[in-house]
């Protein structure tokens, strides 16, 4: 029995101690908030009551039978009446203002083509607009006020909405914004029904910066995606169909050039035809490569490669074109261990494209300088191709790697071109985990550079079996 009482006393002491600690925290939080909001206009009546009450008490104690006490009470009464009236009017005006703002916001949201879902921190749906009703096949009456959780995915009616609010549950999700930044942008893909959605999530905070609600804007890109896919399929089929006859035409002109050495006029015509067929084949291959990149079908085989040997091979292949344009190529390296982990064919394509541009858009008797060096952290190799050519206009530099873009001065020099070469090159380098950039001065030349990793683990796109 004594042991039992001892245990009971210990438990009671522990509970009392815990209780007082909690109460102390509550009081500390109370006074913290009180001091924070003491200067708020909302406490005007509180302070007025307090001051007037103290004043009346002092007068009453000092002059208990004086008529001044009555006058003070009259002043107090009318002051409080005026204060209540003022506060009531302000509250009515404030509520009217809030109602108007909410109506304007609701009207704006309702007329948006994109779906909008507003929900609180507990994922309780506050507002959905008509576009969201159509997208998710839900009505406002049914969904507003409903709390959505991961378990809601089992409900057929709420499945699509749940997977949209919780992207990790969706069949396909790809974040396009940087992690930890706002707004948070995610691309979602669904199979049944086929949907391609872009979601933009942002926070709604109060005046103190605390998050109170979330707004998710959902853009339905299914039709746009379908049209793009149809376009890519058409380009793919057309390019494949064109490549075979173009290859045959190329061989035919090549044969005529070789067989017409004693007929200069015929040989000249054949050379011109051969040049046109080469350009046509390059355009066809660029279209096929761009289509493969956009569809994710551009294959890569990453392996250990001597980058210096690869550059030398490409430079040797380009020597004929350089001679034709009267351009000298200088190739130098500053690295002792030239091994990198790349797809040799695709990086060879990047080198060929950049060196070819440096030659074709150069000046007569111009130069091309190729340099290879390691980055400061030793994790990447940086390759730079610099020329003494026509350069690029400053306002066109941000768009130089966009699909189908060609510089205005380049178009005047060479009307025939697709504007796909640099787009393909940058995608290849990005796929390798590297970066590509350009520096240029109009009429002074350009310097294109790219980096490629020296170690296996530095390429985030490589599949596990290639690591």
Largest sheet: 6 strands, antiparallel
Quickly give the CATH architecture of the largest domain.
2-Layer Sandwich
> Looking at the structure, what is the overall shape?
elongated
Query: Runs with pLDDT <50, length 5+?
Result: 460-467
Total individual domains: 5
Q: Could you give the order of strands across the largest sheet?
A: 2-1-6-5-4-3
Write down the CATH topology of the largest domain: Heat Shock Protein 90
**Residue share in helix:** 40-55%
Please sum up the structure shown:
Helices cover 51% and strands 19% of the residues.
Please specify the SSE layout and strand pairing:
Elements: H1 2-37, H2 44-62, H3 68-110, E1 115-120, E2 125-128, H4 130-136, H5 140-143, H6 159-165, E3 172-175, E4 184-190, E5 195-205, E6 211-220, H7 222-259, H8 264-295, E7 303-306, H9 307-324, E8 328-333, E9 339-342, H10 344-360, E10 367-374, E11 380-387, H11 408-413, H12 421-431, E12 436-441, E13 445-453
Parallel strand pairs: 8-10
Antiparallel strand pairs: 1-2, 1-6, 3-4, 4-5, 5-6, 7-9, 10-11, 11-13, 12-13
């Amino acid at each position: 029995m004594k042991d039992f009482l001892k245990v009971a006393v210990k438990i009671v002491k522990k509970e009392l101690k815990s209780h007082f600690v909690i109460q102390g925290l509550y009081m500390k939080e109370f006074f913290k908030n009180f001091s924070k909001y003491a200067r708020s206009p909302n406490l005007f009546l509180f302070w007025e009551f307090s001051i007037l009450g103290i004043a009346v008490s002092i007068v009453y104690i000092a002059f208990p039978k004086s008529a001044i006490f009555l006058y003070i009470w009259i002043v107090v009464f009318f002051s409080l009446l005026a204060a209540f009236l003022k506060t009531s009017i302000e509250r009515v005006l404030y509520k009217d203002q809030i109602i108007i703002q909410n109506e304007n916001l609701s009207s704006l949201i309702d007329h948006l083509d994109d779906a909008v879902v507003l929900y609180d921190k507990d994922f309780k749906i506050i507002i959905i607009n008509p576009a969201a009703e159509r997208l998710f096949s839900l009505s406002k009456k049914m969904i507003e006020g409903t709390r959505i959780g991961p378990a809601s995915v089992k409900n057929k009616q709420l499945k699509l909405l749940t997977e949209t609010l919780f992207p990790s549950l969706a069949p396909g999700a790809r974040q396009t914004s940087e992690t930890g930044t706002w707004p948070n942008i995610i691309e979602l893909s669904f199979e049944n029904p086929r949907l391609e959605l872009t979601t933009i999530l942002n926070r709604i905070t109060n005046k103190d910066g605390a998050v109170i609600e979330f707004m998710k804007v959902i853009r339905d890109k299914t039709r746009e995606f379908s049209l793009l896919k149809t376009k890519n399929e058409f380009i793919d089929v057309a390019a494949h169909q064109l490549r075979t006859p173009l290859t045959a035409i190329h061989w035919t002109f090549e044969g005529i050039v070789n067989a017409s050495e004693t007929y200069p006029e015929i040989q000249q015509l054949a050379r011109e035809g051969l040049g046109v067929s080469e350009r046509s084949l390059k355009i066809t291959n660029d279209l096929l490569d761009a289509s493969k990149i956009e569809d994710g079908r551009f294959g890569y085989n990453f392996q250990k490669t001597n980058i210096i040997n690869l550059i030398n091979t490409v430079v040797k292949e380009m020597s004929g074109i350089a001679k034709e344009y009267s351009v000298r190529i200088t190739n130098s390296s500053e690295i002792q261990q030239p091994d990198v982990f790349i797809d040799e064919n695709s990086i060879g394509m990047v080198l060929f494209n950049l060196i070819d541009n440096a030659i074709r858009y150069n000046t007569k008797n111009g130069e091309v300088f190729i340099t290879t060096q390691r980055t400061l952290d030793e994790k990447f190799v940086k390759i730079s191709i610099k020329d003494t050519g026509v350069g690029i206009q400053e306002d066109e530099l941000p768009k130089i790697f966009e699909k189908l873009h060609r510089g205005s001065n380049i178009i005047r020099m060479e009307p025939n071109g697709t504007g796909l070469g640099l787009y393909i090159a940058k995608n290849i380098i990005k796929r390798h985990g590297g970066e590509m950039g350009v520096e240029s001065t109009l009429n002074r030349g350009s310097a294109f550079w790219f980096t490629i990793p020296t170690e296996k683990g530095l390429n985030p796109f490589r599949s596990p079996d290639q690591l």
